[in-house]
Amino acid sequence: MLSLLGDHLLQRLQQQTEGALYQRVFCCLRDAITAGVLAPKTRLPASRDLAKELQVSRNTILNAYEQLQAQGYVEAITGSGTWVVEVLPEDYLNVPRNEVNPHHKHHLDLKALSQRGTVFLENAAASPYQWGAFVPGIPDVTEFPHAEFSKIQLRLSRQPEVSRLIYSSDGGCLELKQALAEYLQVARSVRCDADQILITEGIHQAVDFISRVLCDLDDHVWIEDPGYWGARNILRMNGLNIHPMAVDHEGMIPDLNVPAPKLIFVTPSHQYPLGSHLSISRRRQLLELARIHKSWIIEDDYDSEFRFSGQPFPSLQGLEENTPVIYMGTFSKTIYPALRIGYMVVPKNLVTALKTISAELYRGGHMLTQRALAEFIQEGHYAAHIRRMRLLYTKRRAFLIELIERYLGSDFVHEYSHEAGLHLVLKLPEHVDDIAIAQLALVRGVKVRPLSRYYHQASNSTRGLLLGFACVAEKEMLMAFSVLRQCLKEHQVFAQPDSTGL
């Protein structure tokens, strides 16, 4: 018996007479998606099943699915099949710079939101695309030793302790905090014991928590410019006055002419997004300023595990004894983002208060997962996984740089892109529109982020594209880069004849 989709496609195929059979199937599927016959987040039939229904070869369906994925209409999820994306490529065409996030523009009554909520929504920048070439900041989640981690989880869940099934009021799983304290002391030179660690659901929750607990409305905050839009939006949402600080090859440049800050938000080990390292002199300057003004430095150490050459940079928190620094980290870059486990290392004089407030706000949970993660670390699996991923990412990074230098030129690699992190910055001439290039690339199945979107004010921005390489195999990277290069050429980023063959 034919499915409803099979019936629909057979009817439409009779009207499609041009092109190869797989192209006709692709067009019918694409039209079904854009017309809403296949709704967003709908799973497509297995290729073998659909081929049988349409009485075509399986390769015909596979080729049609691949073209749908290349153009951004579907995404393939390992072990779960092929799914229609939540936001279609057409939704990104002709989008004004400050338009509301396409997730919400058709479904929300903005009058129902508070002023802060409206501003937050208008500045929302989270992409619905979180996998593929060249999504920045995403690790290769397929390479994680899921089998080992699952074995630990299964064993613990068979006869769970009661303490793993009720609310946590101690800032998280004790075993995980102990494992983290040992790891951070060695790997990042962080000065801490297990009691100073609070487990969070990631950097976003940690920034939201700290900005609400340690700041009052209209307090002043210094952030890097360009900087992480996620942190900036949370700080803005919580009613804080944001002061962007320019960034150079030594990291944040403090502007002493602006009001003294309550918080200073920095990414010292690998500035996001440009990649520079906060120098020792700037670190000491920030620590001195924080002590003078009774400020707190928020150190976001989001991807410090992935340094591919040279000496690793120790944490800012561990530079001196009793620093006014709250150190934040996450497993999103080393394991996978959906794990939603991060951590804060807080000064000893804040521990008791922050634990109490955290328990009151969030009613801590996920204790079984945290316990499993603790064992995963203690048994050496975590360190081994990071070593393997460093080698893999080193190769992928080198391959991407080779492509850029060969087909665009070495000047296109941003000068701050040091040997670290999960993305590169492709530097572009100031006359080009990096947002328009990113939109065109997305329509063609390549996901990049415009550098100008990371600046506090568009008028002060530098043009460029963030290219994530961690989750992209070399074969896919080559194909995606060819598409991106064509997009750059169409926007007159370069005009030399194409004699490379790419």
UniProtKB/TrEMBL annotation:
<feature type="domain" description="HTH gntR-type">
    <location>
        <begin position="19"/>
        <end position="87"/>
    </location>
</feature>
<comment type="similarity">
    <text>In the C-terminal section; belongs to the class-I pyridoxal-phosphate-dependent aminotransferase family.</text>
</comment>
<dbReference type="InterPro" id="IPR004839">
    <property type="entry name" value="Aminotransferase_I/II_large"/>
</dbReference>
<dbReference type="InterPro" id="IPR051446">
    <property type="entry name" value="HTH_trans_reg/aminotransferase"/>
</dbReference>
<dbReference type="InterPro" id="IPR036390">
    <property type="entry name" value="WH_DNA-bd_sf"/>
</dbReference>
<dbReference type="GO" id="GO:0003677">
    <property type="term" value="F:DNA binding"/>
</dbReference>
<keyword id="KW-0238">DNA-binding</keyword>
<dbReference type="InterPro" id="IPR036388">
    <property type="entry name" value="WH-like_DNA-bd_sf"/>
</dbReference>
<dbReference type="Pfam" id="PF00155">
    <property type="entry name" value="Aminotran_1_2"/>
</dbReference>
<keyword id="KW-0804">Transcription</keyword>
<dbReference type="GO" id="GO:0030170">
    <property type="term" value="F:pyridoxal phosphate binding"/>
</dbReference>
<dbReference type="InterPro" id="IPR015424">
    <property type="entry name" value="PyrdxlP-dep_Trfase"/>
</dbReference>
<dbReference type="Pfam" id="PF00392">
    <property type="entry name" value="GntR"/>
</dbReference>
<protein>
    <submittedName>
        <fullName>GntR family transcriptional regulator</fullName>
    </submittedName>
</protein>
<keyword id="KW-0805">Transcription regulation</keyword>
<dbReference type="InterPro" id="IPR000524">
    <property type="entry name" value="Tscrpt_reg_HTH_GntR"/>
</dbReference>
<dbReference type="GO" id="GO:0003700">
    <property type="term" value="F:DNA-binding transcription factor activity"/>
</dbReference>
<dbReference type="InterPro" id="IPR015421">
    <property type="entry name" value="PyrdxlP-dep_Trfase_major"/>
</dbReference>
<keyword id="KW-0663">Pyridoxal phosphate</keyword>
